[in-house]
Amino acid sequence: MKQRSVHIAALSLLSILCLAIVSGIGGRFAGSASAQTQGLAPAPSASSYVLGSNDRIRLRVYGEPDISGEYEVDASGHISVPLAGPMKAAGTTTRELERSIKSALSKGIVRDPRVNVEIIAYRPYYILGEVKKSGEYPYRLGLTVLDAVASAGGFTYRANENKVYLRRAGTGVEETYALDAPVPVFPGDNIRVPERYF
Predict the structure, then answer these.
(1) Residue 14, domain extent
(2) Angstrom distance (rounded) from CA 182 to CA 179
(3) How far apart (Å, rounded) are the C-alpha atoms in residues 42 and 143?
(4) Would you list the DSSP string of the chain?
(5) Of 144, 136, 128, 138, which Cα lies nearest the Cα of 44?
(6) Any domain includes 45
(7) Do 83 and 98 belong together in one domain?
(8) Separation between Cα atoms, residue 186 and residue 82, nearest integer Å
(9) What confidence score (pLDDT) does residue 119 get?
(10) Which of 37, 64, 151, 152 has the most beta carbons within 10 angstroms of its beta carbon?
(11) The domain spanning residue 60 has which CATH number?
(12) In the prediction, which pLDDT does 170 show?
């Protein structure tokens, strides 16, 4: 009887240890998955978006039709605004650019300028690798890697559909992301879908 109690106690202890180990491993995997998801930067909104080369904006200066119009941010990050001159646009939001243009125009002949800047076209993103139509594509807000793959005609039969390589605009580092979470794409990003190894 005493020996049977010892066996039951040993089995109970073994079960508890197994559960602890399994939950610990599961917790580690869950933690790494959530860390990877948390590591994803939030998708930009129109108000928080930082302008860069090849973005197109519409500038409205009320009562000034010669200044109002569409402008593209050039390779040096500037736009050339009549009566204000070259304005640094890259690295600013639309609100910050409005304030800069208003300040520059106020020093000239425009009295109390009312300025509005809106984005009309974002710089493109690029997708290559194991997609059916690799190339340059127009960006839209809320775009994810899977949306980008769909725009490129979908995966080829050789594609590894579990991960993707992503190089953010302005960086030289390619990062790996799992495709079980919505990975946001930003303007100017380079997406590479790798080949699956059979």
Answers:
(1) 1-39
(2) 7
(3) 11
(4) -HHHHHHHHHHHHHHHHHHHHHHHHHHHHHHHHHHHHHTSPPPPPTTTPPP-TT-EEEEEETT-TTT-EEEE--TTSEEEETTTEEEE-TT--HHHHHHHHHHHHHTTT-SS--EEEEEEEPPPEEEEESBSS-EEE---TT-BHHHHHHHTT-B-TTB-TTEEEEE-TT---EEEEETTS--B--TT-EEEEPBPP-
(5) 144
(6) no
(7) yes
(8) 30
(9) 94
(10) 152
(11) 3.30.1950.10
(12) 79
46 within some domain? no
Residue 44's pLDDT is 63
Q: Are the C-beta atoms of 192 and 174 separated by less than 8 Å?
A: yes
Q: Are 44 and 50 in contact (CB under 8 A)?
A: yes
> Average pLDDT for consecutive 10-residue bins of the chain (198 residues)?
47 44 34 39 72 94 93 95 92 95 88 93 96 96 94 95 92 91 92 90
Find the Cα–Cα–Cα–Cα dihedral 24, 28, 31, 35, rounded to 10°. Answer: 160
Q: What is the dihedral of CA 90, 96, 98, 104, to 10 degrees?
A: -80
Of 89, 121, 153, which closes a domain? 121
Q: What is the pTM of this model?
A: 0.69
Structure tokens given for 45:
């909104």
Q: Are 132 and 179 in the same domain?
A: yes
- Reading the block at residue 61, the tokens are 């200066």
In a domain, 145, yes or no: yes
Among 49, 123, 122, 121, CA closest to 91: 49
